[in-house]
Amino acid sequence: MMAFDAGKATRSALPWLFTFLWIAAIILALLLFVGAPVGEALSGFWNGAFGGRRNAYLMATLSRSALIVGMALSVMLSFRAGLFNIGGEGQLVAGGLVAALVAVLMPGPPLLVLVVAILAAMLAGALWALLAGVLQLFMGVPLLVGSLLLNYPIRYIASYLVAHPYRDVQSGMVQSHLVPQETWFAYFPGTRLDIGILFTAVAAAFALIYSYWTVHGYQTRLNGLSPEFARTVGLPVRRLTLQTLALSGAIAGMVGAIAVFGIHHRYIDGMLVQPLYAWTGIIAVLLVGMVPWAVPISGFFFAAVQTGAAGMERAAGVPKEIALVVQAVIILFVASRVSGALTASRNDGDGHV
């Protein structure tokens, strides 16, 4: 058994400790800059993220975290395979749109409609992700570029559909008709938290098992670490690429369905884009270095930051945009770590370190 190296553990923990202190210092500086009472602001943050009557704000944090964690899991599966799929927003929109339209247009028993709508949403997300993979494998469009650009056409297609042929005109807003009330996700007793979070929990368990205890997960991880080696040992890299992208897109599509049946009960133009679920998911994954078990924790942290910021605004008049500033600081931290890792890898390859 390998002995525990306290010195090495300390050295690896120190950068994280300094980073959190740095982030805390920046938050404190921002609070002082806007002239907010620090004590009230921090108390408002904590209450806004975890308090409220009957823990109402905690339920709001959990509800938001269900979507952020879901998108983070989608990103994590593709990133660990070396596939920089940043088209999660488009796959999310595709899933949400299809789920809403299927539920509105399909006749039949509510449970059947709900199941078919969720499966259709997952299929839509998977197909939209596969399109980016096909563009890379057969047309030479880099996945990073193709997946990003595919976010835009699906957004505009969704906007058109809910603004014209499938618009609920009487509502006076750009949105679809309500899905049948019988298909709405039930709330946990005594709360405003719907059971959609259970879908995310199942997805998190699946991602953990898939990443650590399946041959396919091992092969995709090997491809992510060294595509050249994966090809050399005979792994079907093209097939792995398409399968992983389909899996990633299916999870994103499922998250879109969770938002439709659990929160909004219809598709509203911009409802999946403006809250930045997909981009926050990417940050959450990179913050923890794509470690599967840490991704749900990271996603919950970002959900708490966002709901806590709203609590600060209510309690101490601190603009909730500070949450975006905190995310920007974390992005800078992640970028510095990635840059440092790439520099270290390059130096190792050159034999200088």
Largest sheet: none
User: Which stretches are poorly predicted, pLDDT < 50 over at least 5 residues?
Assistant: none
Strand content: under 5%
CATH homologous superfamily title: ABC transporter involved in vitamin B12 uptake, BtuC
Helix and strand element order: HHHHHHHHHHHHHH
Q: Please, how many domains?
A: 1
Please count the helical segments: 14
What is the straight-line distance between the termini?
A: 28 Å
Number of strands: 0
Helix content: over 70%
CATH architectural label: Orthogonal Bundle
Q: Specify Rg, calculated over alpha carbons.
A: 22 Å
Protein architecture, described:
It is built from 14 helices and no strands. The mean pLDDT is 87. Helix content is 73%, strand content 0%. The longest helix is centred in the middle third of the chain and has 30 residues, at 110-139. By secondary structure, the protein is an all-alpha fold. It has one domain (35-348): ABC transporter involved in vitamin B12 uptake, BtuC.
Please tag this protein with its features:
14 helices; mainly alpha; ABC transporter involved in vitamin B12 uptake, BtuC; 353 residues
Write the layout of secondary structure elements.
Blueprint: H1 6-33, H2 38-50, H3 56-80, H4 88-105, H5 110-139, H6 143-149, H7 151-163, H8 196-213, H9 215-225, H10 227-232, H11 237-264, H12 277-287, H13 295-316, H14 322-350
